[in-house]
Amino acid sequence: MAPLLEVRDLAVGFPGQVVVHGVSFHIDPGETLALVGESGCGKSMTAFALMRLLPPTARILRGQVLFDGTDLVAASQRVMRDILGKRISLIQQEPMTSLNPVLTVGAQIAEVIRRHEPVSRAAAHRRAEELLDLVGIPEPGRRAKEFPHNFSGGMRQRVMVAMAVACQPRLIIADEPTTALDVTIQAQVLDLLDGLRGQLGMAVLLITHDLGVVAQWADRATVMYAGRIVEQAPVRPFFRRPRHPYTRGLLDASVNEAGEADGAHYTTRRLNEISGSVASAAAEPGCPFAPRCREMIQACRAAPPALEPMPDGSEVACIIAARTEAPRVAAVG
Amino acid sequence: MSTLSQEHLTQHSSVGPRGSVRRRHRLLRASLRNPSFLIGLAILLTVIGIALTADQLFPGDPQDMVGAPTLWPGQDAEFPLGTDSLGRNVASGLAHGARVSLLVGASAAAIGLAIGTLIGAMAGYFGGWLDTLLVRLTELFQTVPTFLLVIVIVAIGRPTAPVIVLAIGVAAWPTVARLVRAQFSSLREAEFIAAARSLGYGAPRIIFHEILPNALAPIIVIGSVMVANAILTEAGLSFLNMGDPNLISWGSMIGDGRPLLRTAWFLCALPGGAIALTVLALNMVGDGLNDLLNPRSRTA
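YS: structure for the whole thing
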């Protein structure tokens, strides 16, 4: 199956600083890919670069973003504007501030539809009400005439989802869609998004730093560290057999039921941490994680390792992981 | 969906009903509690009423000589506010002058607002070199004294009402441009503008449909003050005999009364009082609007 979106060697930088060092990944039609990493690892930059919505001083340095056969990096502003909101749409982090405070919710949804489809004002408003109903807002006819300040955070995020799916896009980019919401509402919104994904046949690029969210809602996970992809794997092997030392560190540093023998919902065990800080990656000529890695060997410092395919469909950018897996590949073959 | 979420939903739908209607009621109630706004509005509506009915109240040309010269107010029942040195009815002049003053004031303010909003919006939204260029242009206009600029433009053109309106509008836009630019350059960073970009909206749609409604409150407030300033400027021009000679305005009435200031001071005082009252009313309305539309004074 041809991928819906294919990112090839995408690099993004600010003047005098590179923040994304050539990442490559793809998203198949209808799948959810989670882009995981800590704050500042470049995951949001990557997402905004492929929509060409970077902050004014940031530049795409090289690479290609192929979406349905169009290279988004080379596309004109006009082409991009026709794609955004119609075929690719974004759900932002902050539902409280992402809606225009002086326009009614119905008008805002209708405007998206009118921007991209030749429908009458009345038809667009009817569609807006249907969409509010679709995202589970009760009494959509009445709520459509209300302003964002009449809605709670979770409800606003539902409205954002309604705006994002208004023109039935092929791809939704969700930039930490639930960070600002409390846990119960978070699950509702992600369930809603996942349901709509199946219903409307969309793919989702889910940007998150919450591994619980990845485990429950993603098909594949891509881990970024200091502007590079360090591991990429389907969710099952990702959690069963994390290969990159950074991924293992992340999983070690979170509370997971598997670790606690009797299935208790609490632990008294001290969680492991990854020593050092991301800042150490700045001047590192080799693997960006080398300064913090417990398994680091001399070869790690030579050059950043490339992503190597593993037998179960994972890809890892780690010399040691690649070496230990290599004989296994031979034995299987 | 869990029971908790159900609770959440019903709770919020009971908070929200008819928010827009409620808001309108709240604005109305708040304005009723603001006496200076109400007084200003009452004066302004009276002046507008007189201006609109000037032809019915005082038929005929106010420039016509209808009575004996310099009759004092109350001296002749036919001319309750007296006549000027040429025997023109002062009351009729005030009524017709209100029409000219308000019309010039409102249209000049509208021109100033249009230019200022457009330039301020472009500078604030696009930023970069365009911002620098437009800010420099604004500053250039601001360094020239407003009144002097108006006089120069009117002197170059002809002293007709449209030229005067244009001159005042052109001289008044920099204040608006600076205000609008400040609003736009902070609002363009807002999350909902980033969201608008991610929906494929172009610059014109974002500027006029997404940002402008959010910046409207201070623009309305400054608009009322601009009308007041334009009326003053027009009065100043007419006083200097640079107004439209075919139209009677409050400023020209003061100018005509000036030579008789010691003997018939009412010829200057009456139109002067009308100007002062109207400008005061506009400022009171502007102040009131500022309180009413200021989001920080809202207790929503």
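YS: worth flagging: The longest helix of chain B spans residues 90-126.
IM: good catch. Also Chain B has one domain: 36-53+87-297.
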